[in-house]
């Protein structure tokens, strides 16, 4: 006998049926994607389905200080920019990216067809994400319902005591 509370609370998302959000930032960035873990019981795991049109990329070249990522290529092909290398990727590839500055990465659709993949990540918090091409960082934290998010430049350093009374 199935527990009706479990049936009502347990969410199953299908990456073929989920409504995708479209994001575009001329001229290099464009993607369609959706979270697969939002509104689920997942607490320490994030996942999304992502689609990149030909000639585009979804996000800037970056690396995470805390979170690990995995990409599973469902359809299409492209290029993984990783640690300043350009590596071909194709349908069926599974790419695991550890946390840390050794593996900055970015997926680029260098083909003439749509590139579709699943992104899976840990949701460790706090998290710092660095963007080597633009010398900036994103700091974010979520804890007990409160959140913090800041994007700043790595170029300007301030003293610990600056602007303190």
From TrEMBL:
Residue intervals of the Cupin type-2 domain: 51-120
CDD domains associated with the record: cupin_SPO2919-like (cd02224)
Keyword Transmembrane: no
Coiled coil: none
Source organism, top-level taxon: Bacteria
Ribosomal protein is among the record's keywords: no
Keywords: Metal-binding
Name of this protein: Cupin domain-containing protein
Organism: Celerinatantimonas yamalensis
């Amino acid at each position: 006998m199935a527990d009706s509370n479990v049936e009502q609370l347990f969410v199953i998302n299908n990456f073929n049926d989920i409504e995708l959000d479209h994001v575009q930032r001329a001229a290099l960035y464009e993607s369609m994607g959706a979270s697969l873990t939002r509104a689920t019981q997942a607490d320490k795991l994030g996942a999304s389905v992502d689609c990149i049109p030909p000639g585009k990329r979804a996000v800037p070249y970056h690396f995470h200080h805390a979170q690990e990522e995995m990409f599973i290529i469902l359809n299409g092909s492209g290029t993984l920019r990783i640690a300043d290398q350009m590596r071909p990727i194709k349908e069926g590839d599974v790419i695991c990216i550890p946390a840390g500055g050794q593996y900055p990465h970015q997926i680029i659709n260098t083909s003439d067809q749509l590139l579709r993949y699943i992104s899976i990540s840990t949701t460790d918090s706090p998290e710092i994400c660095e963007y080597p091409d633009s010398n900036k960082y994103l700091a974010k934290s979520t804890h007990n319902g409160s959140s913090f998010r800041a994007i700043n430049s790595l170029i300007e350093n301030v003293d610990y005591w600056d602007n303190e009374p």
